[in-house]
Amino acid sequence: MKDKFILIKNDFYDIPAIFSSCDNSDLALIMVHGTGSDKHEVNNSYDVIANKLLEYNISSLRFDFCGNGDSKESSLLYDFSNAESDILKCYEYLKEKGYKKICLLGWSQGGSMVMYTSGKNKELFDKVITLAGATSLKGLFNETNLKLIEEKGFLQLDFTWRNPLKYSMQWINDVLNIDILEIFKSFDKKVLVIHGKKDTVVPFEVALNIVSNQENAKLLSIEDGDHIFNVFTNYNLILEISHEIGKFLNE
């Protein structure tokens, strides 16, 4: 596996990323992480997927949003516009490397940002994949506590596996006012929606809504999959999913 740690410049800060490259490949996948995670994703699942995709002659680029992984910036910088900007900088990096087809994959909130970005920039991306993708992020905060959040000026999310994340009022306003599904509807190319039927974080019905919203979407339902596709038990489902992703991207 040809993994290379890189820094991609975005305005005044660097985006830490890992570029996994194939020789003589013109197809690359940008992998976008979810809430409280990083470029490796939960239990290194993105590393597993990237490694498997090399067998399909598919290069990949996975990166850290502000405040996550190796990022030196505050998570308060992160909002919908900032996420889109990071993804587009990764796109530009791959274009400069000569890749002709660039696709997007996003897990959970990463899926939200992939749908948002591809909907706004449909001419740039060849295909889109969501893994347990969320169409609304309102579940990350209690709207009845908005007044308290506004007084503090940010939302703090606490985790058992990492330091807390602070989300800005701009992010909250984005969540409340941006219709991700409506924006994503303008992306008229092929979409693969992957979702576990035992997902209790983003219900399976969300996947059905995404598929019914798109012209060219198909659903891969994972019968025994939860929100993280059981990766703390084994990688069986992630390897199965990697195989399906490889086939889909090479269609």
Provide a descriptive summary of the structure in words:
- This protein has 251 residues and is of the alpha/beta class.
- The relative contact order is 0.15.
- Strand 9 (191-196), helix 7 (204-213) and strand 10 form a beta-alpha-beta unit.
- It is globular and about 55 Å long.
- Helix 1 packs across helix 8 (236-249) and helix 2 crosses helix 3.
- It contains eight helices and ten strands.
- It has helices at 45-53, 80-96, 109-120, 146-152, 169-177, 180-184, 204-213, 236-249; strands spanning 3-10, 13-20, 27-32, 59-63, 101-107, 128-131, 154-157, 165-168, 191-196, 217-222.
Highlighted features:
single chain; 251 residues; alpha/beta; 8-stranded mixed beta sheet; two-stranded antiparallel sheet; globular
Quick synopsis:
This protein is 33% helix and 23% strand. By secondary structure, the protein is an alpha/beta fold.
Structural class: alpha/beta
- The backbone outline, from C-alpha atoms, is globular
Output the helix-strand order. Answer: EEEHEHEHEHEEHHEHEH
What is the end-to-end distance? 23 Å
Beta-strand percent range: 15-25%
Tell me the Rg in angstroms: 17 Å
Helix content: 25-40%
Largest sheet: 8 strands, mixed
Total strands: 10
Poorly predicted ranges (pLDDT <50, ≥5 residues)? none
| Helical stretch tally | 8
> What would the average pLDDT be, to the nearest integer?
96
Widest β-sheet, arrangement of strands:
1-2-4-3-5-6-9-10
- What's the multimeric state? single chain
